[in-house]
Amino acid sequence: MAILKALVVDDASFVRDLVKRTVRQRFPVIETTDAPNGRRAQALMSRSNFDLVLCDWEMPEMSGLELLQWMRQQPQYQKVPFIMITSRGDKDHVIEAVKEGVSEYLSKPFSPEGLSKKIIKVMGRRLKESMDRSGASLDSPADAFRESAALLTQKRAAPPAGAERAGLRGTMSLASVRFSDSTLKSVVKDINLTEVRVIARRDQQFPGILDQAVVDIEVGDGQVARLNGYVHQLQAVDKRQDTDFVSVTIRFVDEDPKKLEDLSRFVATFRAAHR
């Protein structure tokens, strides 16, 4: 049934699988191929033609922006839709991507509805005609395409009230954990190179197991590390049904050396402050 071809580029296999699953379920006329970085994507694009590129920004070997710049210099790819899917949602980076010819910009973590809406927007009539020929339909309830609000600026979260009762005394490292339709204000309880455990008040909106997440952590000098991951565990802090606090464990999926360097620096600082 596949008529169109899409290339999914991200250094995190977890994110690539999420994108491919959404495309496969909602657009059966699109066949997906994936690559772990821009360099590998460039090689694939040189050997085969693609009708759509969905790409992360921060990747080893070749970034999404570098791939976009190269792509717009190739005659066969000058007008091919390019959707940048990234946790870098600040205004300056959006403007930079637009100047280089990006078709659409989608912030992580994204919802299937948000991704679907972007694909429909950039593919336009071509996608509709392909779906019509295959007997499928793009029609769906209006709320199916309700996109989560873009988080273009992040504010430092305040410590959750009653944090001391949850065992969070002394120096506290704050974290903002973003999901597709909510942001969790929390305090870092423990962190290493593979996961972070945060504590948050129960009165907030919580995610589900395996939901995408982006953890924003200040790593010094006003810099914020945006670490991609997924929800591994949710657990009550107290052994009471009416507990005020919930522990959330996020497993990291990034393989970008720069992000791992930022994470290593933060882990070292965190350990020193919590001895």
TrEMBL record:
<dbReference type="InterPro" id="IPR001789">
    <property type="entry name" value="Sig_transdc_resp-reg_receiver"/>
</dbReference>
<keyword id="KW-0597">Phosphoprotein</keyword>
<feature type="domain" description="Response regulatory">
    <location>
        <begin position="5"/>
        <end position="123"/>
    </location>
</feature>
<dbReference type="InterPro" id="IPR011006">
    <property type="entry name" value="CheY-like_superfamily"/>
</dbReference>
<protein>
    <submittedName>
        <fullName>Response regulator</fullName>
    </submittedName>
</protein>
<dbReference type="InterPro" id="IPR052048">
    <property type="entry name" value="ST_Response_Regulator"/>
</dbReference>
<feature type="modified residue" description="4-aspartylphosphate">
    <location>
        <position position="56"/>
    </location>
</feature>
<dbReference type="Pfam" id="PF00072">
    <property type="entry name" value="Response_reg"/>
</dbReference>
